[in-house]
Amino acid sequence: MGVIEKTMSKILVFGGTSVVNASVSAGHHTFVYIRPTKPGDLSKLELLKKIQAMGVTIFQGELDEHAKLVEVLRQVDTVIVTLGVPLYMEQLKIIEAMKEASNIKAIN
Questions:
Q1: At what angle do helices 17-25 and 42-53 cross, to 10 degrees?
Q2: From residue 73, how far is each of 11, 18, 87, 89 by CA, in Å?
Q3: Fewest CB atoms within 10 Å of the CB: 2, 47, 50, 101?
């Protein structure tokens, strides 16, 4: 019998630190897309250091940066969006970029 090889996904997470932790724990290549960090936001800077130490690739940008979103999305195959309800219209920007990137296998 042949060996079944487990394929790890390249997962991009929008929001949701617990999802990032779970993705890394499962052995997936994990990426996050976050808004640019302000120098005085010490809690966010500390969180970014922790995430980066876990081996997560961090992309900083706005959801209005369509070309950047497409570029990032072309590096992954799965997208998980956990943005809060007030940002539901912003998710349409992610979906439009995913359509253009045209390589996403799964979205949650």
A1: 10
A2: 9, 21, 19, 19
A3: 2
**Continuous segment of H or E residues that includes residue 17:** helix 17-25
8 A C-beta contact, residue 96 and residue 70: no
Placement of tokens 């690739």 in the chain:
57
**Which residue did the predictor score with more confidence, 72 or 105?**
72
- pTM for the structure as a whole: 0.84
Residue at 54: amino acid letter = M
Q: Which two tokens stand for residue 25?
A: 């724990």
Tens-digit pLDDT profile for residues 14-32: 988 789 999 999 999 999 9
Domains present along the chain, CATH in parentheses: 10-107 (3.40.50.720)
- Compute the distance between CA of residue 31 and CA of residue 55 in angstroms, rounded to an integer: 9
Tokens of residue 81, six digits: 């969006």
Amino acid at 53: A
* Nearest Cα to Cα of residue 98 among 70, 59, 67, 68: 70
